[in-house]
Fold these 3 entries.
Entry 1:
Amino acid sequence: MRPLFMLFTATALSLLAQEHAEPPAKAKPHVAAPAPAAHHPTADPEAPDNPGAGLAELAAGNARFVAGKRTRTLDTAHDAAMRAALTGGQAPFAVIVTCSDSRVPDALLFDQEAGRLFTIREAGNAPDLQGIASAEYAAEHLGSKVIVVMGHTSCGAVKAVREANGKPLPHNLWALQAGMAGLLESTPQDPNEDARTYGARLEEVNARRQAQAMLDRSSLLRDLAAAEKVWIVPALYNLASGKVKFFKPVSLAATAPTHH
């Protein structure tokens, strides 16, 4: 009897111990390791870091274009690497506000590859509100240092406004007149000036006025200009020579905003 009793007791103690034992730990759910952060390319080490350097780079690129010695826009050996780098972001050092004219290829005439120029194109290089917002975005969020508002010789939009002489243009072409409001009134034709000379003068004046209007209509650009973080520079591109003539950056003169 005793061996049987001892066997029964041992079995009971074993069952009791199992009953009061801590429950087995639940398996922790599998948590995937966080994905690595997206890789953003480092800033272009050759990118100008101030407005003056930005303007100098544009001038140097245009000089190469005029001389037929482009380098940046002829280097195609690194196109794949350039595209791959640019998928991570952009940091254009300059904004180019220019005409829609097909004869004004801004990347070529400044000899700059993809990712270096932020381009806004409107007939008559007269940016509307969205164009100004685009320039604000480039300057504030992308770090652009210089905004070039560039007209060109033989501009069809300026010619249309000049020849209309205040009469409304048909269809939506009236918007060209709205974009250049006040141009003819501020720049009357000299009696001794032929139409071609007058038109060339209007093209330059229009570039200057449009650059000033961008500054006058944007408090953000005014603040950046006042801090010397951005220059807004009028310019004129000569179709025949390929040369860009830069004028002085527009000033922060307190003038009434120009509404387009």
Note: The two ends are 112 Å apart (CA to CA).
Entry 2:
Amino acid sequence: MKTTRRLFALLLAGGCALTAAGAMAATPAEVAQAEYDEVMQKTPDVDNGRRAYLTCAVCHLPEGWGSVDGTYPQIAGQLRTVIIKQLADFRAGNRDNPLMYPFSVPGILGGPQEIADVAAYVAQLPMTPHNALGPGTALERGKQLYEENCLDCHGADGRGDVAEHIPAVAAQHYPYLMRQFDMIRSGQRKNADSEMVKQIEGFGPAEQSAVLDYTARLRPPAEKLAVDGWTNPDFPHYVRDALGIRARPPAMPRTPTPSAEPPPAE
């Protein structure tokens, strides 16, 4: 463990690139796993997580609801272990994202303790009840595809798995799900589970849209959803002004669904 920590410190000190010795000693996945293990040993401080979240709020919004066009996901209410895993992967180069990487490096976000803190803070934020949805025209087919291909890992109601850091997908923005599906299938998302890559490789455009539209309509437990009009009280107007964030996030539009209702949570 001490050797792993020394290697990890070498790889991440100052956000520097791998040294030649470090590159031979560990892969990005191994470096990310070392940091994940380190973070999981920390006791999170949610109040410090609120302060660390300041840099995240510029893109993900103070509420953590992301953007309806899929550029930024909803991260509010996401499982703590999932947030930790993805941050570790970004930092180690095990997941590529030019928008996210500069905000995740140690010089900006901090070390393992700060990751533990911000993950705990984000996980307790209430989720928007108005995430972006798809066309709503093939929900029965989407339900069938979800139950055949997604349920075993993500759960019947899309709640994910804490122990296996499998993300919660319920109430995620449909365009974000579509984009990540494409990246996973093409191999562009390097940290994707190999079993999922195999599972979805045969999906055509219609099947992809159907299953992800159904997924976006899965509802989290009521206690995880924000009430209409909620804004994060940790970000008063003067903080939002300083960050260049409007006073209240825009309403999350829902694509008309003339032929079906969202499926109930199971």
Note: DSSP finds 14 helices and no strands in the chain.
Entry 3:
Amino acid sequence: MGKITNALKKAADERLQRIERINRIRENDTLIIKKMGDSKVDSRIIAYFDPKALITEQYKILRTNILSLSKNKPQKTLIVTSSIHSEGKTITALNLAMTLAHATHRPKVLLIDADMRRGRVAKYLGVDQKIGLSEVLAGKATLEEALFHIDVENLTFLACGAVPDNPAELLDSDAMKKLLAQMRNEFDHILIDTPPIVSVTDSGIVGAQTDGVVMVVQASRTQRGVVKHAVELLNQAHAKVVGYILTNIEYHLPEYIYRYL
């Protein structure tokens, strides 16, 4: 009986130690994602504030998976979308873009905010960028006027611009096709943030012009049937879904990982 009691006590002690480690990790991550100095970048852009944070490591794994999708034909232009709103697609696109720009071979990365209905890229970066994609496609501004940077090397942004009357038509225009063709020659990776596919057709239009679509799905919120319907809509538009990103997940870090932290 004494051996069983000691074994249970040992197991309980080890569990408490694991919980303490996890709490310390979470506390550290909370400190990591706090804004630094006068930065106006949203605190959820973890890859900007700390490239070595635990969450940033997950984006690095995502980067590796995307780069290895096709050895023969690299996925140069990808859109990031979701089934419905508020699943974390824009935050994901921003973190992924910064992680790609941090790669050892220093690729040139462009993030386009093609959500011309309620784009958030400029807002999350804390910049007041009035000129964007809608003005470029409508012929009201040049691409040079619309492109902008923050203090991340090799990373360029194109904001959404003012809300136009015809966003779907602009995305399906020759001007959009020419813009993507030009950008393919100038950048190594192009990420395009688009509206949720179930709400509007924009993602399908842009997805058909790119190498693939990455779907963001929020855990414990988005129903499987909704995701299936979203994928069907993308397939109907001849947009190829190359992978899924699950957001809003909490998971336990195994014991053997701690020695590397």
Note: Residues 3 and 23 are 30 Å apart (CA to CA).
